[in-house]
């Protein structure tokens, strides 16, 4: 790797460490209480500049709609500029139409490879001047192309307490493992799936007789609470750092 890339990754690590530390253990306990009492979690992120969000979704879009609702309620200082979905049947398109938010289909099957899809996503988000990317149920792996276009500004939600149960069928994995508490995590996106620094988590107890469906429903209720808050929290930390220069998608050469 060229030496300037190494310098960039050192900066990244220190920024990220700060973000990871601002999710105090207390928020997990409060979120656990929230699941039992139906009360919202208590910790409130501070102010941050307005965000122009680009959302990526493959399915129902309930998290997308929860973020839109938080914006409408004045709980998140942002706008959703564009939703990209990759599956023609995705219900998120209907939700976006109802909310008058632009939605565009980029069907992954029509692209030569993952990089080509990520380049197209980047182009569309740049056309809408998107500053933060929110993966709300996006079921595709992303590549360095998207990561380098929005450095430290891509968040994902995952239905487990990471680093436990990454990857697909996380709710089923937790049930099969016999754990008593699972939950959901909002984290920065890195190349390895579900591996990036964690911004916020909520715990959800597994109850006797829980099925995948009943547990998933309770986890999703917590996802809808923490995702907008985690976006604000991440933005508050990261937006204070210099705005990244958008990178072109030209191949890098190794000058070493
Ligand atoms: C969520 O449960 C999220 O954790 C996972 O995909 C699901 C998306 O749900 N990554 P929805 O489309 O937001 O309803």
Fold and architecture overview:
The protein is built from eight helices and seven strands; from the N terminus they run ααβαβαβαβαβαββα. The chain is α/β, with parallel strands linked by helices. The chain has one domain (22-238): Formyl transferase, N-terminal domain (Rossmann fold). It has a seven-stranded mixed sheet with strand order 3-2-1-4-5-6-7, sandwiched between helices. Helix 6 (144-149) links the parallel strand 4 (132-135) and strand 5 (154-158). Mean pLDDT is 83; it is low at 1-42 and 244-256. Bound molecules: 5-O-phosphono-beta-D-ribofuranosylamine. 5-O-phosphono-beta-D-ribofuranosylamine binds at residues 57, 59-63, 136-137, 157-159, 184, 220, 223.
The N- and C-terminal alpha carbons lie at a distance of 7 Å
The small-molecule ligands in this entry are: 5-O-phosphono-beta-D-ribofuranosylamine
Instruction: Work out the count of structural domains.
Output: 1
Strand order of the biggest β-sheet: 3-2-1-4-5-6-7
Largest sheet, if any?
7 strands, mixed
Strand content: 15-25%
Mean of residue pLDDT? Answer: 83
Structural class: alpha/beta
Tally of strands: 7
- CATH level 4 superfamily: Formyl transferase, N-terminal domain
SSE string: HHEHEHEHEHEHEEH
Shape: globular
Helix content: 40-55%
C-alpha-based Rg, rounded = 18 Å
What structural keywords apply?
single chain; 256 residues; alpha/beta; Rossmann fold; seven-stranded mixed beta sheet; 8 helices; 41% helix; globular; disordered N terminus; binds 5-O-phosphono-beta-D-ribofuranosylamine
Overview in brief:
The chain has 256 residues and is of the alpha/beta class. It has a 7-stranded mixed β-sheet with strand order 3-2-1-4-5-6-7, with helices on both faces.
């Amino acid at each position: 790797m060229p030496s300037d890339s190494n310098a960039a990754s050192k900066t990244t690590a220190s920024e990220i460490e700060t973000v990871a530390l601002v999710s105090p253990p207390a928020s997990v306990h409060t979120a656990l209480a929230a699941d039992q009492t139906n009360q919202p979690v208590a910790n409130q992120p501070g102010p941050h500049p307005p965000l122009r969000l680009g959302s990526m979704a493959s399915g129902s879009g309930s998290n997308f709609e929860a973020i839109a609702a938080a914006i409408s309620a004045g709980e998140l200082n942002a706008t959703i500029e564009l939703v990209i979905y990759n599956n023609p049947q995705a219900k998120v398109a209907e939700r976006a139409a109802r909310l008058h938010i632009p939605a565009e289909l980029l069907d992954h099957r029509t692209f030569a490879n993952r990089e080509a899809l990520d380049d197209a996503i980047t182009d569309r988000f740049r056309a809408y001047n998107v500053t933060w990317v929110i993966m709300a149920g996006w079921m595709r792996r992303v590549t360095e192309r998207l990561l380098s276009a929005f450095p430290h500004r891509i968040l994902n939600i995952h239905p487990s307490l990471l680093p436990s149960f990454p990857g697909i069928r996380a709710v089923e994995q937790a049930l099969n493992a016999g754990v008593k508490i699972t939950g959901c995590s909002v984290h920065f996106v890195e190349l390895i799936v579900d591996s990036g620094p964690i911004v916020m988590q909520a715990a959800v107890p597994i109850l006797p007789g829980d099925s995948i469906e009943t547990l998933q429903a309770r986890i999703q209720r917590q996802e809808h609470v923490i995702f907008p808050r985690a976006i604000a929290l991440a933005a508050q930390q990261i937006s204070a750092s210099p705005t990244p220069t958008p990178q072109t998608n030209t191949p890098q050469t190794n000058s070493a």
